[in-house]
Specification:
Elements: H1 3-8, E1 18-22, H2 27-38, E2 42-47, H3 50-64, E3 69-73, H4 79-87, E4 95-98, H5 116-131, H6 133-137, E5 142-147, H7 170-195, E6 199-204, E7 209-210, H8 220-233, E8 235-236, H9 237-240, H10 242-249, E9 258-261, E10 271-273, H11 283-297
Parallel strand pairs: 1-2, 1-4, 2-3, 4-5, 5-6, 6-9, 7-8
Antiparallel strand pairs: 9-10
Helix pairs in contact: 2-3, 4-5, 5-7, 5-11, 7-11
């Protein structure tokens, strides 16, 4: 049995392990949390809305029968919230799933003044990972799984205007943030391998999945159009979560791997190892993005110096 088909069963047990899933109140995050809990993990649903988090917790407990599910507040658009979540963490962390995100929203800014998509999708998760690094190091074999998108292929990191001060285009900003997710993953894994810590960084994308990610877009007509497109061309959030679960639980996953569906254009299908756009492998850009992200968030990854 080849590597991809063997791992696709997704039955690797996680008993005794602890996971955090951001944006676990619905969609891919909720289905990922459910999948991890079914495999025996203790799962923390990290959610911005207390009300929606509580509702998701009820759904997850009913779906799994697990008593090892909890919910904690986390607003990735507010670095104070990210610091609070991390500061209150105790014990080792075995799995961090950086899933939460917004897509093609009208121009908005986070509590810290960042363009919302770059701020939440990339900077919030960058800061969270750095602040939880000590907890990850206390695990025997931790993983950081960051969720990207097919849109990364159209992305470019606009270092001269990361926060859209001069011009804003929703889809370009989204693609930039999803490219940043992958550049961060690859740079993080390079640095982890260089120091030999028991942590790996991997990434996944859900193809085209029917979730509530389009909810932040402008206008009912846009929502109807995009929702219809995703329903026709895409797959359910249950199916979309499978590449994420493979990245999180597959016994043969390696640092720097990237998983997605195996169907036409990677829009749907069974989860397999896939290739990112060539731009993801640009080490100069990834190192520069890392430095800028440290400056913007004020979070440094102690003990992980630049490679090369």
């Amino acid at each position: 049995m080849n590597r991809s088909s063997a791992e696709s069963s997704g039955e690797h047990r996680l008993d005794g392990l602890t996971a955090v899933v951001t944006g676990a109140n619905s969609g891919l995050g909720l289905q990922t949390a459910i999948g991890l809990a079914r495999r025996g993990a203790a799962v923390v649903l990290a959610c911005r809305s207390a009300e929606r988090g509580a509702a998701a917790l009820r759904i997850a407990r009913e779906a799994t029968g697990s008593a090892s599910l909890t919910v904690r507040p986390l607003d990735l658009g507010n670095l104070q919230s990210v610091r609070s979540f991390s500061r209150d963490w105790t014990g080792p962390l075995d799995l961090l799933v950086n899933n939460a995100g917004v897509m093609a929203t009208p121009l908005k800014r986070t509590a810290d003044g960042f363009e919302q998509q770059f701020g939440i999708n990339h900077l919030g998760h960058f800061a969270l990972t750095g602040l939880l690094l000590d907890a990850l190091r206390r695990s025997d074999a931790a993983r950081v799984v960051t969720v990207s998108s097919l849109a990364h292929r159209r992305g470019r990191i606009h270092f001269d205007d990361l926060n859209a001060r001069s011009r804003y285009r929703p889809w370009k900003a989204y693609s930039q943030s999803k490219l940043a997710n992958l550049l961060f993953t690859m740079e993080l894994d390079r640095r982890l391998r260089a120091v030999g810590w028991p942590v790996i960084a991997v990434a996944a994308h859900p193809g085209l999945s029917t979730t509530n990610l389009t909810a932040g877009m402008r206008g009912a007509a846009v929502l109807d159009l995009m929702g219809g497109f995703f329903r026709v061309m895409g797959q359910s959030d249950v199916e979309g979560a499978k590449p994420i679960l493979l990245a999180a639980t597959g016994p043969q996953v390696h640092g720097g791997d990237y998983y997605g569906p195996d169907g036409p254009g990677e829009t749907r299908g069974k989860p397999v190892l896939v290739a990112p756009a060539p731009s993801v492998l640009d080490e100069e850009v990834s190192a520069r993005l890392w430095s800028v992200s440290e400056e913007l968030t004020g979070v440094s990854f102690a003990g992980l110096p630049a490679v090369g």
